[in-house]
Amino acid sequence: MDIHSAKKIYCIGIGGIGLSALAQILLTRGKEVYGSDATHSAVIEKLQSAGAKVKITEDPKDIPKDTDLIIYSAAVPEDHKQRQKARQALIPEIVYPQALGQLLRRAELSIAVSGTNGKTTTTAMIGLLLEAAGLDPTVIVGSVVKQWGSNARAGKNNVMVVEACEHKAHMLHLQPNVIVLTNIEEDHLDFYKNIQHIQATFEKYIKVLPQHGWLFLNNDDEISREKLKRPQTQIRTFGIDRAADTQGKNIVYLDGKQNFEWWFQEKYIDDIDLQVPGKFNVANALASISVGTALGIETDVIKKSLENFAGTWRRFETVGQWQGARIISDYAHHPTALEQTLRATKEMYGDRRVITVFQPHQHNRTKKLFTGFVESLLKADNLIIPEIFHVEGREDDSDVSSKDLVEAITKKGTPAVYAADLSQTEKILKKTVQAGDVILMMGAGDIYTLAEKLCQKKS
């Protein structure tokens, strides 16, 4: 039983950003979608209004008897009560990346975006670009795209764009004919042994590309440029600091936006004005341009689509105002992403005081990348670090705390304050924030809930 032949599908952990997007696509394809999750959310409300029957439960009795297939989120453990019941009842079960792979294999044009940083924004940019070009794609993104108000877009053409996560080598379940690789760095070291293991896994992944397929590589990324064993397929590069097939030059920041020159194979093409800040977003845009030009999309369509790009949820998102300060929420949880986001904030709000709140995500990641986190946060001027967000089922090392980060950063000359939880973080902010400040809240945990609470917004 696979996702195509199944009529009634039950999703465990349906509120997750990936599985909820998949569920929306399945509903548009006439499937009966049922599901469960541990907590209620706006995502679940949206699924329910679209026709999914979702309960906040772990009760095995809630799985319909005539269920054809179980799809579970990668975050759901094997001993989950509903998964145990499914095995006893001999209901076939597959993990979300497997389901995504089955869906992707039916697409004539299948594009997967992978890499340590920038996957979500690049996926969204490419999806919007293909939509603007009239290709009517189906898109699954790891965040809510502002222009769609959703993390999914159901298209009618046989074209699909997906975000492909590298955690536990999940991308190996996919066999796309186009792969965009944003960069390769150390991360998910609760699964990977080292950077060599990560590189080898990506090499195995891109090896599936057919000769007529496409591989897009970031020429500014050392591993992609110099170490990655390349498959027998069509390859194009993009970048800013090094020569590439598609290159961005002369970035200029003005009034909260940025402009860059688009060059292709050493020839000037046009200027692009991006609404989203940061050099990293220029790189994301260049990846999208690379895909667009390879597919033969016209220059003016590419330019207009990127200039209209309004961003995604928790990717340098302006949440609102609080105590006269602007609050920005960002998903950054890797040292490189932290450094890039801090730099973008200072470039955009150079004349304003920036208060940085970083909630580390996962003890294992914090311990393995400790030095990187310390170095990236030294550039923060006013720093608050709440306790590490605990990730159930992915924690082997608990002998590290945000207190250790605060101590190491302070010793190097950058003042930092520890907060035991988000409640204490809020109290510290109330005493610290002044009108005109910018509050940058970063992390992959629940730090966004504090940003939304302060601005009285509901996710």
TrEMBL record:
Keyword vocabulary terms for this entry: ATP-binding, Cell cycle, Cell division, Cell shape, Cell wall biogenesis/degradation, Cytoplasm, Ligase, Membrane, Nucleotide-binding, Peptidoglycan synthesis, Transmembrane, Transmembrane helix
TM region(s), chain numbering: 9-27
Superkingdom of this protein's organism: Bacteria
Function: Cell wall formation.
Record-listed E.C. numbers: 6.3.2.8
Annotated gene: murC
Residues annotated to bind ATP: G115, T116, N117, G118, K119, T120, T121
Reaction(s) the record says it catalyses: UDP-N-acetyl-alpha-D-muramate + L-alanine + ATP = UDP-N-acetyl-alpha-D-muramoyl-L-alanine + ADP + phosphate + H(+)
Statement: the UniProt record of this protein carries the keyword ATP-binding: yes
Family stated for the protein in its record: Belongs to the MurCDEF family.
Pathway per the UniProt entry: Cell wall biogenesis; peptidoglycan biosynthesis
GO molecular-function term, one example from the UniProt record: UDP-N-acetylmuramate-L-alanine ligase activity
Primary localisation category: cytoplasm
PROSITE patterns, sorted: FOLYLPOLYGLU_SYNT_1
Domain Mur ligase N-terminal catalytic: 8-106
Subcellular location(s) per record: Cytoplasm
Protein name as it appears in the record: UDP-N-acetylmuramate--L-alanine ligase
Segments forming domain Mur ligase C-terminal: 314-445
Stretches assigned to the Mur ligase central domain: 113-291
Gene Ontology biological process terms from the UniProt entry: cell division; cell wall organization; peptidoglycan biosynthetic process; regulation of cell shape
Gene Ontology CC: cytoplasm
